Amino acid sequence: MASTLTAPSTVDDRVSSRSLGARLLSRPEVGSLVGAVVVLVFFLIVAPPFRELATTGTILYQSALIGVMAVPVALLMIGGEFDLSAGVAVTTAGLTGGLFSYQFSTNVWVGVGVSLVVMISIGAFNGWLLMRTGLPSFLVTLGTFFILQGLNLGVTRVLSGTVSSNSISDMDGFSSAQAVFASEFKLGPLNVKILVVWWIVFVAIGTWVLLKTKIGNWIFAVGGDAAAARAVGVPVKRVKIGLFITVGFFAWFSGMHLLFNQAVVQSGEGVGKEFIYIIAAVVGGCLLTGGYGSVVGSAIGALIFGMTQLGVVYAGWNADWFKAFLGVMLLLATIVNLAVKKRADLR
């Protein structure tokens, strides 16, 4: 009796393509995207003003205020670190630009440049101290947080006599700087702040760097296992210092928007904002352990924040409950992100 031989499979299981479901689950932003849809539908139902098209511009602006800083915070978290000084650093940037321009009677663009140098230096200091001492970034940046908070209040009061910077609205260069950092334009029925456009640009650039460049591979590597990354030639020190410098740059940009949107900066602003940036990144798929996350996800997390913040107001609810919602959202997002990652790793 003749036997039938079955030809061996020529497909290597190690390189076989994964299912569409597995590929979707492997994306960190999937959970946040579902959450954003749920939040949108919910407030469309319970908050009638939420359905008006003109409201969209306000929602996008509130989201951009968080989303711009959520980009570098997400990159830093993927790299395995935190920056608890990010919120007050934004205020420091605005105060530096405004106070320098006013005290020295310069064109405001000079203050903008000085502020950029200061913020890049603060970011570099955070990264250098972290790598030099080996201390957790939590402790390093917590120290920077208190230093900047004290300087913001103390220096501002000495120079201006109050707790806010002097108005620079009538100084040379203000109009052109405002056009870059804090202008707005009409898009049909929408009033769109230029910050929203910058936010989209920053998210696109951050996503490209993270997913399409060698630097992005390095960020994932140092966040996943710094020792293993160093062993295969990844410049761990440069990557981490570079990530903190990136946070400093974005803090400068956000500070310039704050300054040229209001012409003055309150020295007590920014405290607590660092946690909102982290929440946006975590809701967007970043793990607190590093090595996993998404810049697009951070944008979706910021959008959820913007929709919820305004949705609570439009629904006529007590805004005191908003912070409680943020805490619940953070816990749920952390649990969902871990579950999604484990599910994806099994496929």
Descriptive overview:
The chain has a single domain (25-346), classed as ABC transporter involved in vitamin B12 uptake, BtuC. It is globular. It has helices at residues 20-25, 30-46, 55-78, 86-103, 108-133, 137-160, 174-181, 194-212, 214-224, 226-231, 236-262, 273-283, 295-314, 322-346; strands at residues 184-187, 190-193. Helices cover 70% and strands 2% of the residues. With 347 residues, the chain is mainly alpha-helical. Strand 1 and strand 2 (190-193) form a beta hairpin. The protein is built from 14 helices and 2 strands.
In short, what is this structure?
Helices cover 70% and strands 2% of the residues.
Write the layout of secondary structure elements.
Blueprint: H1 20-25, H2 30-46, H3 55-78, H4 86-103, H5 108-133, H6 137-160, H7 174-181, E1 184-187, E2 190-193, H8 194-212, H9 214-224, H10 226-231, H11 236-262, H12 273-283, H13 295-314, H14 322-346
Antiparallel strand pairs: 1-2
Task: Write down the domain tally.
Answer: 1
How much of the residues is beta strand, in percent? under 5%
CATH fold-type name: ABC transporter involved in vitamin B12 uptake, BtuC
Helix-and-strand structural type: mainly alpha
Counted beta strands: 2
Radius of gyration over alpha carbons?
23 Å
Average pLDDT, rounded to a whole number, is 87
Give the CATH architecture. Orthogonal Bundle
Highest CATH level, the class: Mainly Alpha
**C-alpha termini separation:** 42 Å
Low-confidence blocks of residues? 1-16
**What form results from the Cα inertia axes?**
globular
